Amino acid sequence: MPESDPILEELGLMPVWQKRALSTISAAEPAALEASSSANVKAQKKEFEVIPDAALSASETPISSLDWDTLKARVADCKRCRLCEKRNRTVFGVGDEKASWMLVGEAPGANEDRLGEPFVGQAGKLLDNMLHAVGRTRENGIYIANVIKCRPPGNRDPQLDEVAQCEPYLKRQLAIIRPQLIIALGRFAAQSLLKTDASISSLRNRVHQYEGVPVIVTYHPAYLLRNLPDKAKAWADLCRAQEIYQAMKH
Ligand code: URA
Questions:
Q1: Mutation test residue for ligand 1: of 75, 90, 106, the one with most atoms within 8 Å of CB
Q2: Domains, the chain
Q3: pLDDT, tens digit, for every residue of 104-139?
Q4: Between 48 and which of 11, 17, 163, 176 could a Cys-Cys bridge form, CB atoms 3.0 to 4.6 Å apart?
Q5: pLDDT (tens digit, 9 = 90+) per residue, 178-204?
C-alpha cells in the first residue's frame, strides 16, 4: 500500500492504520486514535494487516467455516474493531435466509443501531416499496445485509481497517445464502464488494461478478431520498436485475 493514496483519502477511507494484532488494542485506545493529530495519523497510516481469524483465538472456529446461527452469535459479540465500543446493537441482516437476491448496503445508521435491523428508516421504506414493485419483500426472496455490522459514530464513513475486519462476516453470509443475484446499494457497498474505486456512475448499467454471482450496482436509497430524479435510474437498475434473474432461470 502506498504511503498516501489520494483515492482512498478522497473516499474518506483514510486515515487510521495499525500494524499489530487487534488483541493488543486497549479499550480506551480507539477514541484516542480517532482524536489523533494529523501528524500522528500520517505516521499511523503506513500499512496495516488483516488479522487472520486464527490469530484472534486458537480455539475459535474461523468465520469462513461458521454455520448461520454461530455466525450471527459471533457478530453479536464482535470486538474485532473499534466500532464495538460505541454501538448499541450489531446489525447482522434481515430477510429470507433462502433468498435468491441479496442486497448489500453500507453500514447501520442511528435507527438501525437502535433496532438491530438494516434499513429501518425512510430509506428502508423506499427500498421496501421498490422491492414490492418487483414482487419481492424482506420475507420473500430478499436478504439484506451491510458491509459493516456496527454503526460508525456520527454516521462517518467506515475506515479501511474496519471494513477489513467486518468483511469476512458478509463473505460468509453470501457463502451460506448463495444468492443468485446481488444488488449493491450505493458506492460504498459496490466498491467494497467489487474491490474497485470506480465511481457509481461508471459501475451502474453493467453486470459485475462476485465469486461467480452477478452483481448489479444501484444508488443507495438514502441518496435517492435526496435526489428524487435519480429514482427512475434506480428503478431501471431493479428492472435490469429482474431481467437478468429471469434470464438465468431459463
Ligand atoms: N444505510 C445502509 O447502508 N444500511 C443500513 O442498514 C441503513 C442505512
A1: 106
A2: 31-248 (3.40.470.10)
A3: 999 999 999 999 999 999 999 999 999 999 999 999
A4: 17
A5: 999 999 999 999 999 999 999 999 999
